[in-house]
Prior knowledge:
The structure is a single chain. The chain is mostly helical. The chain has one domain. The protein contains 7 helices and 2 strands, in the order H-H-H-H-H-E-E-H-H. It has helices at 2-14, 18-95, 104-110, 122-130, 138-177, 192-196, 199-237, and strands spanning 178-180, 188-189. It has a two-stranded antiparallel ribbon. Helix 1 packs antiparallel against helix 2 (18-95), helix 2 (18-95) packs antiparallel against helix 3 and helix 2 runs antiparallel to helix 7 (199-237). The longest helix has 78 residues, at 18-95. The chain is rod-shaped, with a radius of gyration of 34 Å.
Amino acid sequence: xxxxxxxxxxxxxxxxxxxxxxxxxxxxxxxxxxxxxxxxxxxxxxxxxxxxxxxxxxxxxxxxxxxxxxxxxxxxxxxxxxxxxxxxxxxxxxxxxxxxxxxxxxxxxxxxxxxxxxxxxxxxxxxxxxxxxxxxxxxxxxxxxxxxxxxxxxxxxxxxxxxxxxxxxxxxxxxxxxxxxxxxxxxxxxxxxxxxxxxxxxxxxxxxxxxxxxxxxxxxxxxxxxxxxxxxxxxxxxxx
Length: 240
């Protein structure tokens, strides 16, 4: 093709047809520029397609991660509801000066449980490495960042502080006042009468009710945020 254009230019120069040569030269320049622009546009289109494919892939993985988080949260909500109920029962028994019943042993164990929340962050970590701007939907990007960098962080810190308090303080109290300790079974007090007058234990039971209530509210809030994000992701994936 280049040789063909060169022959035409040489023939026009040989025939001394300068005006036509200039017109032809300008036309050739325009064709070259158009070729460059088309190539640039094709390259941009290919890059855009790769970017969109990468974004859709991360969104699909993110959706799977969030569904795993929902499963984890639902299990933890069950534990916290159980702990809240147990704290109410123990508080009622102690506050009403009721006699010991071996059914309480299950509740003594239940109030000790502080399940960890470990969100699945593989997709979000990829997104951060790639750049959150990969997601064009500003609202979706904002909700994702807020969930992982704010809501999840607060929830994990809140749970972590409770676990630290429980293991540092309550474990020693249980060792001193219980014959058996089983986090997933039953814990039997060595002297229920003495335990019922133990101010540290009573304070912990009252605190547990407050803690479980607040934690359940946090989980419900994050659960709503997750479901909202999944819905937004589904809408984005439909655009594929």
